[in-house]
Every structure is written in C-alpha cells, then in structure tokens.
Amino acid sequence: MAVNRTGLAVETSGLVKTFGKTRAVDGLDLAVPAGTVYGLLGPNGAGKTTAVRMLATLLRPDGGEARVFGHDLRTEADAVRTRVSLTGQYASVDEDLTGTENLILLSRLLGYRKPAARERAAQLLAAFGLTDAADRQVKKYSGGMRRRIDIAASILNTPDLLFLDEPTTGLDPRSRNQVWEIIRAVVAQGTTVLLTTQYLDEADQLAGRIAVIDEGKVIAEGTPGQLKSSIGAGTVHLRLRDAAQRPEAERILAKVLDTTVQQEADPVALTARVGGSGAAVDAAAAGSRALAELAGAGIVVDEFSLGQPSLDEVFLALTDKAARNEEKA
Amino acid sequence: MSTTTVAPDTTAYTPSAETIAAVLAPGEKPRRPGPVSASLTFGWRAMLKIKHVPEQLFDVTMFPIIMTLMFTYLFGGALAGSPREYLQYLLPGIMVTSVVMITMYTGVGLNTDIEKGVFDRFRTLAVWRPAALVGMILGDVLRYVLAAVVIVGVGLVLGFRPGGGVMGVLAGIGLLVVFSFAFSWIWTWLGLILRSEKSVMGVSMLVLFPLTFLSNVFVEPLTMPGWLQAFVDVNPITHLVAAVRSVMAGAPDAGAITWVLVASAVCTAVFGALTMHRYNRK
Ligand SMILES: Nc1ncnc2c1ncn2[C@@H]1O[C@H](COP(=O)(O)OP(=O)(O)OP(=O)(O)O)[C@@H](O)[C@H]1O
Ligand SMILES: [Mg+2]
Question: Which residue does chain A place closest to B31, by CA atoms?
Fold first, then answer.
C-alpha cells in the first residue's frame, strides 16, 4: 500500500463548509493514520456527512486545507478519486438495476473489460453473500443486503481509503454484525477506513482512534480508552435484592462516592460515576468502601460491577461541556 | 405503482475474511476507460433502465401517435383541402415537434436521478466527468429515434409519401436526432439548477410551447403578421423543420442543414459547459 511521507491517509486543518448561514463544518482538524479504522462520532447535524463528502471530492471546501494521501483535495481531486471510495449514508447504487448489473457497470467504469467485469461482479457478490440475489433489482433487497451491495460496490476498485457514512444505521443486530465483520476484513487488508457513526459502541468496537465532532468541530480526539478515562475513573453499577432499599442505598453511595447517583429504569439498579474529570481517584478503593458501607447498613447487593465509563457517558459529558463553554463565551 | 415486496434475507451470511481479502488483493488495476468508452457504459445503464422500467417508453410512442392523428385530422381539411394532402406538409414538422417535446424528459429525469445516491458514486469515479450525462443523453437518443420511427410509420399508414425515399427519411431523422442531442443539454442544465421535477416541467413547457407552435410546423409563415414572422424566422425549430422537410422531400436545403448543424454544435458547447459547471459543484 502506498503511503505518503507522513503516514497519514487524511490530513485536514481548519476545514470549513458553509451552506448559506449554516456552518456545517467549521474548522475541522483531522489526522487519520493510514491502515486503521478511524471513527467520526457525532450527533445528527454534527457535520459528519458534509466532512466525508468533502474528503471524497463531492463537495468543495469553503476554507482550510485538506490532503488525502498527500494529494491536495482542491487541486488534485482526480488523483484522490483513484485512491478512495465512498459508501454514502443513503443508497449509492442504482436501485432499478440488479446487483450484478450494478457491479458490472461500475467495473466497466473502472476500466475492466466485459468478461473481467462480469467475473469481478460475480466474485464480489459471492464474497458478500449476494449470489442468490444477483439478478434481483436492488430495490427489492432487504436493508442488510443493500448495505452489503453498497460496500461491495465501494471496494470494487480496491481503494486505499474507504469512507463509510453511518454504515449500520437502521440495520438489525445480525446485519450490523455482518457489516462489522466486513469492515474488519477490509482493514486487515491494509485499507484505511474512515467511519462515521452515531453509535458509540460501534466506534468503540471498530475504531483505533475516534474524533468526537459537534457543530462542525472536533471536541475530543483519541483512542476509545483515552476518551473514556478523560471524563472519569469509572462507573459503578449495582443491583439490589430488594427494591425498597434503593433510596437508602442511593443516599449511602452518594455520600461515599461524593457524586450523583442515577436510578435506572430497572427498580433494583443504580449507577454512579466515580471521580470527576481528570481527578486521580482510585475507583476500586472507592468502590470497596461503598460496598462495606452498604453491607453495614444491612443492604443486600446481588450484583456489583466497576467499569470504565461507556462512550455514551463520554459523549454526553463532552457535549455538555461544549454547550456550557459556549454559554460562557 | 405496485408495491414492491422485499424478499427476506434468507441466506445466513457470515462474512469470510479470506474471500474479502481475495477481492481486495492488490492485483493489476485496469487502465481507466476513455471518454467514449465511459459514455457508452453510461448509455448501457440507460438501456438497462428501459429494460427494467419499460413503461417509460409509453410517452415516446403514444404521445407522437396522438399528435400525428390529432393534427392531421384537425387541420387537414381546412388547411390543405384533405388530411392526406396536409400530411405531406405536416409530417416532418409534427415529427420534429414531438421529438423536441420529448427531449424535456431528459431534464426531468436528471433532476430526479441526481438526487439519488448513485450519482455520488459516479462523481467519485476517476472517469471523464461528462460521461455520466453524455451516456444518459445517448440513452434518450434511442427514445428520440423510436419516437421518430413511430411517427414516420403512422404517417406512411395514413398516406405520407416522402419524395426523398428511404435515404431522405433516414437523413431527416438523423438531423433531428443530432439537434435533439444538442438541445437536451439545455434540459440537463435546467434539471441541475431547478429545485424540483415540477419546476423543470413547468419551465420546459414555457420554452417548448412557443418554440414549437410559433414556427412553420403547422402552416406556412407567409400568412402570419409581420412581428410573428420575425419570431418564426429566428426560431431554431423553423430552421430544423425546413431542413428535415427538405431532405425528406428529396430536395436538400443546404442553408437550413448547415444552420441546424452549426446551431447544434454551439448549443452543445454552451449548454454542455454550463451543465458541467453545475454538475461539478452540485
Ligand atoms: N446541502 C445542504 N444544504 C443546506 N444545509 C445543509 C446541506 N447539507 C447539510 N446541511 C446542514 O449542515 C449541517 C450538517 O449536516 P450533516 O449532514 O453533515 O450532518 P451529519 O453529522 O451527517 O448528521 P446525520 O447524523 O443526521 O447524518 C446540518 O445542519 C444540515 O442541516
Ligand atoms: Mg450524515
């Protein structure tokens, strides 16, 4: 795999895209190492799709710099196009055509001659479990099959960088797992994958590094582990034997851990975050002290777990912080 | 519209790292296709769409037949003594009118097509940029040819007897198709700048009605008031009809033919460039 001097698949600084008054992407700085899965995580309207569409040469940036494998996005768009592929948020194959026809069409456009294109189409359909549906129009495919034909179409040209814009939104758990497996297999071949998602566990599962974006800017960046530890030492989950004891348990936990305790929908469950942002708190010690106090008060604990905060919690904490800073400014 | 039933994804598919690795193996990448080859491939896409949605051929067959029958019998008796006599004058003109009217579907089609994700994929391919649109218009050219052939066929049945014979008719259809290809670029441009399918339709009608009716299609312009004759004389449709009529009659009018060819080249260059400008920024 050709990699440029810096070993970065994507490099942007101060990238901007505006639509009228909306600053969809507002000074985005990214550095995506080649050969990894990189996650762009953000809520609806964060600017993920806009960022990806710029990097895939579909939209012209209004400001800032961007390079893909060292090629300038503005002046060397054609060179970028030979290296990348995009699976858009919405179907990016022709729904009126069959699976085979779509793949032959795209193979021909990549320069394969007819017999080779036919062969390549059959090979990809087989690899993506679509041989049985090969001669069916794509509009008659299920959601999972559509995603697969979309991704198959995107790797026809053996891209060095694959953009996947919310590849599992709307899929059932089984189809989602299939897509995850495909992504792992693709990246194992040395392809860089830039993945956007709203699902924290998806980024956690797949990505080596994550950029959390909100309102067109990166608000946090790092490995999933770094992001989690940046907001606290850990999270305590408790399940009590007796729901009636929950208010009492909540009071004790809040006192010992010096934090707010959340009541879960489950009437016997409680969750508490241990240690504030950046504070060097020994989560395990705090947890065992809490357990001892609960036992002393005669509260029976059926389940106790101490873990890293989930990315959901990271995300809520980060966007809260961003919102608060904005108010101050 | 029939409801499409989504077939259940019955095959229990488990992605295999090996087979995916095999398709990603960095084999020799093929040389990218040239402009002609890429355009023809996109033309093939248009053929496939006709194969899957054959209803779209309905407008290009029924509409011309109705136009021909309607105007032949509506005006024939009054304007030329008999429908059969009038048909000799009318047929080339009604063929031009019908086909030029059909060209507007190019813009409507592009307007809906471009909103679909597949165009994103086309635009990330490293192929000659206009190929996707040229190919689409090549597909439409097939519809133009079909419409023209249908009209000539109906005409022959009703008693149209062109003096230019088979060669004359073919040359007439050829001229019309060249012009329609060029004219289609106006619609692709409008299809890209206007917001909805409806507005493309509206603007197209606004352009096409005066252009086709205020011409020499139905009557000789000599009976018209001076200001109208002035418009008719600069109307491209007038020149096109004159050229097509002349070759079909077996007496080619070199001036009109040259006019049509030059106008087609200019139209393709200007509106092709405008279209590509919009297409690249979309
Ligand atoms: N073509 C457009 N015209 C005008 N505004 C746009 C356009 N595309 C995006 N926007 C706006 O830019 C902002 C960012 O949109 P974008 O689609 O990039 O977000 P996203 O992170 O992909 O969201 P989602 O998770 O919903 O897909 C939104 O406020 C959106 O309304
Ligand atoms: Mg999006």
Answer: A111
Task: Tokens for B134, please give them.
Answer: 């040229």
3-state secondary structure of A192: strand
CB B90 within 8 A of CB B75: yes
Residue found by looking up tokens 């000074």 in the block: A27
* Distance separating alpha carbons of residues B165 and B224, to the nearest angstrom: 31
Mutate to test the interface with A, among B5, B10, B24, B277 (most CBs of A within 10 A): B24
HSE-CB for A98 with a 13 A CA cutoff: 16
Query: CA A63 to CA A29: how far, in whole Å?
Result: 12
- pLDDT in the model for residue A192: 96
Residue A56 is predicted with a pLDDT of 93
**What ipTM was assigned to the predicted interfaces of this complex?**
0.85
Alpha-carbon gap: B35 to the closest alpha carbon of chain A (Å): 10
Q: Is A197 in the pocket of ligand 1 (CB under 6 A)?
A: no
Give the 3-state secondary structure of residue B196: coil
Neighbours of A221 (CB within 10 A): 16
pTM for the model stands at: 0.84
pLDDT digits (tens, 9 = 90+) for A116-134: 999 999 999 999 999 999 9
Contact B179, B266 (CB under 8 A): no
A162 neighbors A192 (Cβ within 8 angstroms): yes
